[in-house]
């Protein structure tokens, strides 16, 4: 995965290429080359690419890694106050807690909007169980609620449903 330092290095090289291309475009206008307007377009494109790389070098792109957390898939996100993640049915309560904390950190964004006075992001975790052939049932195992306004939320509430873990299929030996 690229880091902000990598993007800053790419920005420098892209900036140099943009300046060289701009110099060639100016030379094309002075010498009245037939491709001078294409060179202006290429220079403009490189300018946009350089600006994009520069903005990527400013923001953090890394994800939080919490020991013991399992991989999850984001299956629903309304972009505001609710999200649902999918987890494997073999998860343990300890792994679920770590996974919910990691999801709460990774899904935090300044761009989320609170609706109707609700300033909390609720992330629910679910898995799919198959009680009989041809039947799939979603089973919610826990949820975490965190603040939408503060990245470091000291009042984050985590709730795990132990009665739901009893419904999970037992691993076969």
Summarize the structure in words.
The chain has 173 residues and is an alpha+beta fold. It folds into two domains: 55 residues; 93 residues, no CATH class. Helix content is 39%, strand content 20%. The chain has a five-stranded mixed beta sheet with strand order 1-2-3-4-5. α1 packs antiparallel against α2. The longest helix has 27 residues. It is elongated.
Biggest sheet: strands side by side, in what order? 1-2-3-4-5
- Regarding quaternary structure, what we see is single chain
| Tally of individual domains | 2
Q: How would you describe the shape?
A: elongated
Strand elements, count: 5
* Major sheet size, sense and barrel closure: 5 strands, mixed
End-to-end distance, in Å?
Answer: 37 Å
Question: What's the total helix number?
Answer: 4
Order of helical and strand elements: HHEEHEEEH
Q: Please bin the fraction of helical residues.
A: 25-40%
Average of pLDDT: 88
| Unreliable residue runs | none
Radius of gyration: 25 Å
Structural class: alpha+beta
The fraction of residues in strands falls at: 15-25%
SSE topology:
Layout: H1 4-30, H2 36-58, E1 73-77, E2 82-86, H3 93-106, E3 120-129, E4 137-147, E5 157-160, H4 162-165
Parallel strand pairs: 2-3
Antiparallel strand pairs: 1-2, 3-4, 4-5
Helix pairs in contact: 1-2
Task: Summarize the entry for a quick read.
The chain has helices spanning 4-30, 36-58, 93-106, 162-165, and strands spanning 73-77, 82-86, 120-129, 137-147, 157-160. It is of the alpha+beta class. Helix 3 links the parallel strand 2 (82-86) and strand 3.
């Amino acid at each position: 995965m690229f880091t902000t330092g990598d993007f800053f290095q790419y920005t420098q090289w892209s900036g140099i290429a943009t300046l060289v291309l701009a110099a060639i475009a100016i030379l094309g206008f002075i010498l009245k080359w037939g491709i001078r307007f294409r060179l202006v377009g290429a220079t403009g494109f490189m300018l946009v690419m350089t600006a994009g790389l520069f903005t990527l070098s400013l923001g953090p792109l890394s994800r939080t890694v919490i020991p013991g957390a399992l991989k999850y898939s984001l299956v629903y996100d309304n972009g505001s106050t609710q999200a649902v993640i999918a987890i494997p049915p073999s998860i343990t309560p300890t792994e679920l807690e770590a996974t919910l904390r990691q999801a709460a950190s990774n899904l935090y964004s300044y761009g989320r909007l609170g609706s109707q006075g609700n300033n909390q992001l609720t992330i629910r975790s679910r898995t799919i169980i198959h009680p009989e052939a041809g039947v799939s049932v979603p089973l919610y195992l826990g949820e975490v609620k965190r603040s939408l306004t503060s990245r470091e939320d000291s009042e984050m509430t985590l709730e795990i449903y132990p009665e739901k873990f009893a419904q999970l299929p037992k691993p076969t030996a």
